[in-house]
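Consider the following assembly input.
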Amino acid sequence: MLINGEPEERISINDRGLLYGDGLFETIRVIQGRPVLWKKHFQRLLRGCSALSIDISPDNVVRDLQKLLDLSPADGIVKIIISRGAGGRGYQPPENTTPTRILQFHALPADLELQAEQGIKVMICRQTIGQGTLAGHKHLNRLEQVLAAREITDGFTEGLMLNIDSELIEGTRSNLFIARNSQLFTPDLRLSGVSGVMREYLLEYLRAAGQVVSIEPIPLQSLYNADEAFLCNSVAGIWPIVRVQHTDAAYDFPIGPMTRLARSVKLADLAEPVPKTC
Amino acid sequence: MLINGEPEERISINDRGLLYGDGLFETIRVIQGRPVLWKKHFQRLLRGCSALSIDISPDNVVRDLQKLLDLSPADGIVKIIISRGAGGRGYQPPENTTPTRILQFHALPADLELQAEQGIKVMICRQTIGQGTLAGHKHLNRLEQVLAAREITDGFTEGLMLNIDSELIEGTRSNLFIARNSQLFTPDLRLSGVSGVMREYLLEYLRAAGQVVSIEPIPLQSLYNADEAFLCNSVAGIWPIVRVQHTDAAYDFPIGPMTRLARSVKLADLAEPVPKTC
């Protein structure tokens, strides 16, 4: 673990990341020492910092990442947290705070390959996801995801979250695609949810392959009527959905051609060298 | 500062309060060594812990509070943060975590008495407040309030926040009441906002005094058409609003009879001894 580039495991209780969730994070798969979709992760982090007016030095983040990768196993997960730092009277931050950079290395969860191959079972969470102007950003205000994740019971890998209008938004830690009549659909995330880097990559990849993908509101019923469905994130890659459980009803899905097309993306091919800082 | 009852200023970067805002807080005025509206603060904290399934020992919180008050000046502000503690794979918390209790003592901000006497100027924030099922609770996911508070410029004490339908919800750190034709109105907080303990107390107090108070959606225009308006929180008490600034337009308000009725509540009378734990 590195805090502001130095080995350290604790932070001040005056850090605004703790006090208000005043910050952002990225969770990045590392393969053979190289972060997967690094540019997209970094761009999203910088976009988030810009939206929150957190003034970080991009070079410092890259330097921390290089240092952490040098100290860590070749394969695993890097988590980067950027908070606004300490200071301020209540919610109002001072004009100039020094942001806190926290980097951690974690082992990969088990079963990722098996899940990608065999598909996963998901449930519909009772905890809904709210609407607000901070949608899209991967900020530290994640209580809804925590409460939804608490609902996931043994045998299920992921939970799907709805907004209060019963439209599907995303999984607790993944984005959703459904297929119907050879067309793909993924939820509109302008008011709710996190704009995943794997979703962003897949949209580019699938469209470049000539596949139609519509971004639009997706009522829960549309999932049940779908031909196939899958989830994605940049740690697991593609999770084919083979069963959706909603209270007493279960809906089964095949791993069909659309899912196989998405699964043809290999995370190892998306691992990128971290550019050296000046 | 106390963490889990011991003098300490830093916490683990694995604390879920930092990682996800997975916790709650209370900010409590202390007068002559006694916390103002302590029972209401404590009840809201326990309600929040119940909603988030954070299993705290109430006795431990009371014991920490007594210890902090013994170590601190007679007048000021106590902040209590309860997080779910450290642990878990991603969003999903483990079955049993040990919650983290953080207590801090702060000095009172300047000018509180002057503000209560002369009234304050407020602005309408561009940052809106979202809608979700965690409304009402004083949890640690407070990015919207942070961004709104950043907008408050010199000369203004507080900012008012709207939902995306341009209905008034609250101040960044206070609740709103408006008066029209001798009737009082305060926004409905079921979908957005924080249910303040001072608001709760005022509702009881005003209604016991025979005053009609309606809880309902309040469009921004209703504020401009109001006879009087005031904000409240349990640190400042009542803030009469004497001016609302919205981009180029300013609206002035008198400190009228409804505001004076609310201001007849004295925080010192609401300071309560902390009950001894068994």
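The mean pLDDT of chain A is 96. Ask yourself how this observation constrains the way the partners meet.
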